[in-house]
Amino acid sequence: MLFDFILFMSVGTIYACGEVFSSVDRMKQLPKIEQKLIAACDRFLEHKHKIHGFAKFKRFLDSTRKENEKALRDETYVENPINGFRLLWRLSERWLAATTTSRTEKVIGDDDTVSDFFVKIRSSIKKVSLWPTADDITGAANGLVRLSLVFNLDINQLIGGSIGHYHTEPLTGDEVFAITKVVYQTEEKLELMAWLNKSVDLMTSENTEAKHADEAIELKTKLLASMKNRKRDDSVDKNINKCNGSGCHGDSLSEKLTSNGQNSEVHTTCHSMYEQLCRENTRTAADNSKLHCQYQTTSIPFIKAKAEYVHTDPPIMLFHDVISDIESYWIINTSRHMLSRSLMGKFNTSGEYFGKKRISQSAWIYDDLDVSAKLSKRIGLLTGLSTRLLEEETHAEPFQIHNYGLGGMYEPHEDSVRLYRQTGKEENKAVRNSGDRIATWLFYLTDVKVGGATVFPLLNTRVPVTKGSAAFWYNLKQNGDPDMRTIHAGCPVLIGDKWVANKWIREVGQMFRRKCALDRDL
């Protein structure tokens, strides 16, 4: 059969889930899948060239082939979020539209051949595990809007295909309107108006189908009516302005967190500081003068590591050249087919969910493999902490591997699991009696062109993504209490493909390695 190749793609490669937008690595596989679909269509049409019902589809195929060839020539094509959205939208929407024939387009005598052909395409596409869906379009559109807001991007330039020094083809009116419909579901009404105006202008100039243009104009009319009676609430602006004053220091804010971590003032201020740090390093020369670099010694005299202090109290360190390119590639290649959407836990329940605050896919790698075991020992050597992985009362957790998606990020959060422990929701036998996560080690497996930094909003500290390096910090004070100053976030990836591997180290096994302080406040 002409579409056996698609069936092979659906069963020959096994993936943990079908979602695509939340992993740039998965998006990179789409152009090759589309290429095989185009080739199969070409082979079929070679024998049906006299059938007039295929004329419109052939034009679609010719234009799609050109776009597909661009993506195949450049392996970093989808690392640009504009290209990533365009690819997802084309596969999800344009292929469906091109294989749906209206009654006015049918040709007498050719109906069955054309219809059967299109039905085969659509049914085969459904069997491809990585083929994007409407949910991927929604996620990708939200990602583009998130990037425009966090990085203060000019919408006209973004729609025009420009992100800083990176340029690509402009978005079409239909693509912009697809994004606009997603923005309409959010509270960003002023942002929505900018997208709506641009989509209407583009669809008018491109002579887009009247129904799409009419829908955009109708949506604009509704929005204007709702905004006319809506008073602007400037409470968020007030909280953002606080970030430029003395009320944003980590010590004062972290003290305001309640026992369940739900202080709205802290979280609002923390989020605004997080976005500011994602855009730029806000540290002054005076702040940087307190920092230093050193060779980190270990229990083996001739083994040392280059360590950079990016913050001193609490200490946050960036170790340079601590994982090789070969080791990084091994981790990526090993975890690639195990990726599934990263979850967020609910401390007051035993459940987990797909949170909008975390856009990535993740996998776990244990220490029963040579490379991962070697890396765990290296972490233990450099930190002085035990990283033994045990079936019960484990000293550390397995490596958690993350690949971020279109606009992928992880908003401000703490690594401490105190809330789960308080409610008895840590049910995994290995960690149930292992105490809290005393420290975090984070390997950076790839470079990121723009964005993706790890930031500590309450400490005004920003750690850039540097391939081969690793960030390290303590989540707990020496008295065992959570150090809320180390609330951190992964900034949205603007341009690039971000891979990281983190290891959480538990309290059990560290009693003689990181001793309690004499001062109860430390």
Concise description?
The chain is an alpha+beta fold.
User: Per CATH, which architecture of the largest domain?
Assistant: Alpha Horseshoe
- Share of helix, binned: 40-55%
Number of domains: 2
Average pLDDT? 84
The first-level CATH class name of the largest domain: Mainly Alpha
Distance between the termini: 70 Å
Q: Please name the fourth-level CATH homologous superfamily of the largest domain.
A: Tetratricopeptide repeat domain
Count of individual helical segments: 18
What composes the largest sheet?
Answer: 9 strands, antiparallel
Tertiary shape: globular
Number of strands: 19
State the secondary-structure class.
alpha+beta
Provide the spatial order of strands within the biggest beta sheet. Answer: 3-4-5-16-12-19-10-9-6
CATH topology (fold) name of the largest domain: Serine Threonine Protein Phosphatase 5, Tetratricopeptide repeat
Low-confidence stretches: 5-16, 231-253
Q: Which strand-content bin applies to the residues? A: 15-25%
Q: Radius of gyration, Cα only, in angstroms?
A: 26 Å
